[in-house]
Structure formats: structure tokens, C-alpha cells
């Protein structure tokens, strides 16, 4: 089972990037299933039904979310019914949408779970204990894949160890900056702290550079906008064996024009 993961898709540039890059990846690699983080896909904040459809049409099978899940109010019209959109599972009980989904891929059941960190972020329920609960509900699936949407590297690495041998893959999102620590942990779980973003190359994590600089220089409120220009598309390719363990994790990156 070969899985392609693409990091946070930021705005129009990120969407153009994944639409152009996915066919190039599929030409070179066997890919059975594509997961991307969609929390920034609509103008940098949130996701709309139209943009979700645009990304599914580009070949993405599942969109995971994060702290920007609720930024576009249109999300509420689909989040309860669209099984391919997964929001952090550790929101309090009663929150719209679903925290994980099970998808049929080549005769296997693949579970995709989204969790959000609590260090330097909103105080959701404990992602570690929430995952313990979810694993009890996922005993019959073949592969479990976790998007841990979190800020602190320590919290992400800790969850990787906590889930080692219990899931197939833990990948990080949210910082929009890829880390070089991809590896297979001793129990057979593939792990990376952050896969990076799919968005504007010349930006501050997707946002127009001058607006972010103004914010840092003046500490005055700024309305952030996604940057334009060339894209960078960042992600990982992961191969999983029949027994649900990982045998390879490779970082990929495509820069427009290179
Ligand atoms: Fe993000
Ligand atoms: Fe985020």
C-alpha cells in the first residue's frame, strides 16, 4: 500500500500546485491513496464545499483539517455528510464532523485520523488519550494513518513514540515547514514531525511577506492574505506492508519551474 501525503494546501497557489504536481508524482510512483491537509485551502483559512470538490477532483482521496477548520462558515453545510473531510478528533463531544474515517482501498480498510496538539494551541481534549479511545474502535482495520496537526515538535515526537507499533503512519502538519526527521520507528510506524506546506514559495508560511513583516515590526493588527507567485508542494511517500507496518518513508518537494 503506497500512500501520498501532501502538507497544508494554502490558497489558490497551493491548489494550483497540487493540481499540477499530483499527475507528475503519479507518473513516477505507484500511489494507492492520497491524503492532504486542507485547512488553509480557501484563501489561506478554512475550506469551502467548492474547493473541497476541486481538490477531490485533483485526485486527493481525503482532506484532513486543523485549527482553521471552522474559518469558512460554508464548511458547516458539508462537514457532517462529507466522509472525506476529517477534522481533529479531540474537539469536544458534539462538535460537527468526524475525527476519523475508514476508507476501502484495494480491498483493505484504511483509517485516517486527525488529531490536534495542545501546546501553543487551543485546549482541546488530550490527543494521546483520544487516540487510545479511537484505537479501540479501529481494531479491524488494516492500516491506521494519523495527521497530528500541532505546533510543538516535542508534542509531535511524543505522539509518534506513543503510537509506535500501534498505527502505520504518524505525520505532522500545521507549521508549514518540513522537517528532516522522517524515519521508521522501532515498532514499524513511519513518522515525520512535519510534512511542510503546498503553497506560495515566496511567503511567510503562505502569507504575503510584507504583511507579516509589518505585524512583527509594528505589533499592529494586520489582515493576512495568501501570497501569489510560484508554488512549493511538500509531502511524503510512504510504503506500507501487508502487516500494517511501514517499510519506507520519503520526503518529496516540487518547486514551480524547477
Ligand atoms: Fe496550516
Ligand atoms: Fe494549522
From TrEMBL:
Pfam family membership, one: YmdB
InterPro entries the UniProt entry points to: Metallo-depent_PP-like (IPR029052), YmdB-like (IPR005235)
Gene3D superfamilies: 3.60.21.10
Cited CDD domains: MPP_DR1281
PANTHER family: 2',3'-CYCLIC-NUCLEOTIDE 2'-PHOSPHODIESTERASE
NCBIfam families the record matches: TIGR00282 family metallophosphoesterase
Protein name: TIGR00282 family metallophosphoesterase
Amino acid at each position: 500500500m503506497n500512500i501520498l501525503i501532501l502538507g497544508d494546501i494554502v490558497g489558490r497557489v497551493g491548489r494550483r500546485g497540487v493540481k499540477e504536481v499530483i499527475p507528475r508524482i503519479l507518473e513516477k510512483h505507484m500511489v494507492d491513496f492520497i491524503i492532504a491537509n486542507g485547512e488553509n485551502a480557501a484563501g489561506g483559512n478554512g475550506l469551502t464545499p467548492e474547493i473541497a470538490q476541486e481538490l477531490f477532483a485533483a485526485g486527493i482521496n481525503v482532506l484532513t483539517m486543523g485549527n482553521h477548520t471552522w474559518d469558512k462558515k460554508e464548511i458547516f453545510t458539508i462537514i457532517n455528510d462529507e466522509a472525506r473531510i476529517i477534522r481533529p478528533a479531540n474537539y469536544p463531544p458534539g462538535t460537527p464532523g468526524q475525527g476519523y474515517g475508514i476508507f476501502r482501498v484495494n480491498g483493505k480498510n484504511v483509517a485516517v485520523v486527525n488529531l490536534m496538539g495542545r501546546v501553543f494551541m487551543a485546549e482541546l481534549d488530550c490527543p494521546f488519550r483520544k487516540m487510545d479511545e479511537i484505537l479501540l474502535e479501529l481494531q479491524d482495520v488494516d492500516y491506521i494513518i494519523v495527521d497530528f496537526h500541532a505546533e510543538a515538535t516535542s508534542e509531535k515526537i511524543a505522539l509518534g513514540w506513543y503510537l509506535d507499533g500501534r498505527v502505520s503512519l504518524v505525520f505532522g502538519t500545521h507549521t508549514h515547514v518540513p522537517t528532516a526527521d522522517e524515519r521508521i520507528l522501532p515498532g514499524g510506524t513511519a513518522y515525520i514531525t512535519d510534512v511542510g506546506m503546498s503553497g506560495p514559495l515566496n511567503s511567510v508560511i503562505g502569507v504575503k511577506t510584507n504583511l507579516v513583516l509589518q505585524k512583527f515590526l509594528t505589533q499592529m493588527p494586520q489582515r493576512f492574505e495568501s501570497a501569489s507567485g510560484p508554488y512549493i508542494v511538500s509531502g511524503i511517500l510512504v510504503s506500507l506492508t501487508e502487516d500494517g507496518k511501514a517499510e519506507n518513508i520519503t520526503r518529496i518537494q516540487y518547486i514551480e519551474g524547477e
